[in-house]
Amino acid sequence: MRSGNPVLQGSSLTEVSASSRPMTLSGTIGRSIYLLLLVAATATIAWHQVSSNPSLAYPMAIGGALGGFIFAIITSFKKEWSPITAPIYAILEGLFVGAISFVFEQRFPGLVIQAVMLTFGVAFALLGAFQSRIIRASDTFKAVIFGATAAIALVYVFNMFFGLIFHTSLGFIRDSGPIGIGFSLIVTAVAALNLVIDFDLIENGIAVRAPKYMEWYSAFALTVTLVWLYIEILRLLSKLRRN
Questions:
Q1: Geometric angle at alpha carbon 189, from 184 and 190, rounded to 5°
Q2: With a cut of 70, which residues of the chain have pLDDT below it?
Q3: What is the pLDDT of residue 108?
Q4: DSSP state of 6
């Protein structure tokens, strides 16, 4: 029962045992809302800080992204720490989201609200499809999404090192032409389908009476995917605007 999240590639419910205080659906929903509110609140603060001093945009975005990545890795290996590390991740990721959102909004007014609405629209649509069993998180489905997610992560890592060495990026990642838009569509679709795996993680955790801290871990996994999906939708919409 893997999660396809970019930073949660090895997670499995087989690593935890049944507990006398098991995770519940209401508990997981509550913690998910809490983490998303933390992201939103921190993003709002970051937005206002960057609007007052635009030079803070990229340092804040890079610092938030790196800090969030570090705590995401810690959480993925130490699930029992998630009640502490998940909120820290949400705060750091909020800095990244707020700064990046401000930059995109300055270039393309109205883009951020469109991306937010599309992100939650896709999430609720996939939740409905999962609950009605239109989409099933089979082993084959998980393997395909896991492989696609890992491939995308490798492309982004290679692009980062390519940029550091040659001070440029792979053309199709930023290109607003058909190839660039096609790449963003694929990445956005993979990010969205990771939500199905997260829903399955939550459903199975409840079924096997996973420990209470798995509520935080499952909420963390869902937050990681939603933030990733939001960023990819933001990038896709910006390419469509440029095109």
A1: 100
A2: 1-20, 166-172, 243
A3: 94
A4: T
Q: What is the DSSP letter of 227?
A: H
User: Which ranges in the chain belong to alpha helices (H)?
Assistant: 25-52, 57-77, 82-107, 111-131, 139-166, 171-174, 178-207, 213-242
pLDDT number for residue 166: 66
Q: Which residues pair with 211 in a beta bridge?
A: 22
- Closest of 71, 121, 76, 119 to residue 93, by C-alpha: 71
Q: How much is the pLDDT for 175?
A: 77
Scored b (16 or more CB within 10 A) or e, 99-120 reads bbbbbbbeebeebbeebeebbe
Radius of gyration, CA atoms only, the chain: 18
Dist CA 27 CA 55 (whole Å): 40
3-state class of 233 per DSSP? Answer: helix
Largest Cα–Cα separation, the chain: 56
Q: How much is the pLDDT for 177?
A: 84
Beta bridge partners of 22: 211
What one-character DSSP code corresponds to residue 186?
H
The end-to-end CA distance of the chain, in Å, is 40
231 near 108, Cβ under 8 Å?
no
Q: Is 105 helix (H, G, I), strand (E, B) or coil?
A: helix
Distance CA 206, CA 228 (A): 25
Of 31, 37, 63, the closest CA to residue 217 belongs to: 31
Residue 175's φ and ψ, nearest 5 degrees, are -65, 140
